[in-house]
Amino acid sequence: MELPIPPEPKEIKEFIKRQRGKFGSVPDIDHDSLSVWYLNRLPSYLWKYWKTVLENAGYTWQKFIKVIKYATDDIIDWALYDNLEWNGLVKKLAKLLERYASVRR
Questions:
Q1: 10-16 long-range contacts, CB within 8 A, separation 24+
Q2: What pLDDT, in 10s, does the model give residues 42-57?
């Protein structure tokens, strides 16, 4: 399954950081997680680019969300702490999605 690397959505990254800022500065995994999943902005962006490939691999929107939730820590590292580059995040997500694809090529 070949998933293209879409352009880094810097506006979504900033949106996530703003959401996190509303919860205060105290480190808290629940607030970090809530911030990256708020309004599903990142998943919606990725689904727009990958929908056709993912559907051909047996994915629905619901399954896509369920699988990429396993990468919440990686998304937090990218969006909130700048500990992961965009290309690295996308490669991790692609590997995860490949693992749980229903249709193997």
A1: 12/41, 12/42, 12/45, 12/79, 13/78, 13/79, 15/41, 16/41, 16/42, 16/79, 16/80
A2: 999 999 999 999 999 9
Q: How far is CA 11 from CA 8, 44, 54, 65, in A?
A: 9, 13, 24, 20
Residues 79/36, Cβ–Cβ less than 8 Å:
yes
The reply to whether the predicted model has a pTM over 0.70 is: yes
**Domain ranges across the chain:** 10-99
Here the tokens at position 57 are 């691999």
User: pLDDT below 50 — which residues of the chain?
Assistant: none
Give the CB-side neighbour count of residue 23, counting CA atoms within 13 A. 17
pLDDT, averaged across the chain: 95
